[in-house]
Every structure is written in structure tokens, then in C-alpha cells.
Amino acid sequence: MRSPDINAEGVVHALQLAGDTLRLTTAPLDQLNAAAAFLAKALARFPDGASRDLRKVEAIARLEAAGKTIGAEVMRRSKT
């Protein structure tokens, strides 16, 4: 089992990767897949349903947006 620090570090890296177009477009496919896995694991920690905590709502939105960005890059590469 991985430590929470490694998981948190992976999520931070994934968010940074999704926010940097140059890094995103030049990252190896295995790095994109790992980043997507960390984001999915982080999203799974939030219970289903609407939260009234604004910080949680914003965190979920950022994780989902980063996942979509990374997923779009993976799809773009699979078409070439």
C-alpha cells in the first residue's frame, strides 16, 4: 500500500502536468496514464453526491478538469 504522501505527490504532479501544455504534450504515455490513475484514485476518495463544502466542490472540479485534459491528450495521441 502506498503512503498518503506518495498519493498526494502523484495528484499534485498530475495537476501540474494538466496545467502545463508543453509538459502535457511531451510527457510519455506511461506518465500520462500514471497521472490519470492518481487523479482517479483521488476522486474515488470523495463520496458520491453533492457536497455543501465549497472547498470539496472546487477540489473535485479541479481533479475532474485535470483528468479530462489528460484523457484528451491520450485520445489525441491514439488518433495519430
What does this molecule look like?
The mean pLDDT is 91. It is globular, with a radius of gyration of 13 Å. It is 79% helix and 0% strand. Helix 1 packs across helix 3 (29-44) and helix 3 packs antiparallel against helix 4 (54-78). It contains four helices and no strands. It has 80 residues and is mainly alpha-helical.
Q: What is the global morphology?
A: globular
Give the number of DSSP strands: 0
| Average predicted confidence as pLDDT | 91
Q: Indicate the proportion of strand residues.
A: under 5%
Biggest sheet statistics: none
Radius of gyration: 13 Å
Secondary-structure element order, N to C: HHHH
Report how far the terminal alpha carbons are from each other: 36 Å
Number of helical segments with 4 or more residues? 4
What structural class do helix, strand and pairing data support?
Answer: mainly alpha
**Low-pLDDT ranges:** none
Helical residues, percent: over 70%
